[in-house]
Amino acid sequence: MSNKTSRIDLINEFEIAPQSTLFDQKTLAAVLDCSTHLLERNRWAGQGVPYIKIGRTVRYRKEDILTFLQQQRVHYVNREAG
């Protein structure tokens, strides 16, 4: 049996967790459907989801992840109307 956690399991874990839960970059990558490399690059560039660093460990708070996702929302504007 594999020790590897599936993307679906990581997303389900994220969904049911309280707002204050801290997640690793593997879980965040599953939620955002991106690579952990992109998250590392964003941290280095000072972009993306705010994170907490404890020693050498990086964690992301669920509340910060949800806020980041809300900020990425795009509103459609119909330019032909008017």
Short description:
It comes from Legionella spiritensis. This protein is an alpha+beta fold and 82 residues long.
Largest sheet: 3 strands, antiparallel
Shape: globular
How many domain modules?
1
Number of H- or I-type helical stretches: 4
Q: At CATH's second level, what is the architecture?
A: Orthogonal Bundle
What letter string, H or E per element, gives the SSE order? HEHHEEH
Coarse structural class: alpha+beta
In angstroms, what is the radius of gyration? 15 Å
Given this structure, which CATH class is correct? Mainly Alpha
Query: Any low-confidence stretches, pLDDT <50, length ≥5?
Result: none
Please report which band the strand proportion falls in: under 5%, 5-15%, 15-25%, 25-35%, 35-45% or over 45%: 5-15%
- Overall mean confidence score, pLDDT: 93
Structure commentary:
This protein is 46% helix and 12% strand. Strands 1-3-2 form a three-stranded antiparallel sheet. The chain has one domain (7-71): Arc Repressor Mutant, subunit A (Orthogonal Bundle). The mean pLDDT is 93. With 82 residues, it is an alpha+beta fold. The chain has four helices and three strands. It comes from Legionella spiritensis. InterPro entries: DNA-bd_dom_put_sf (IPR009061). This is Helix-turn-helix domain protein.
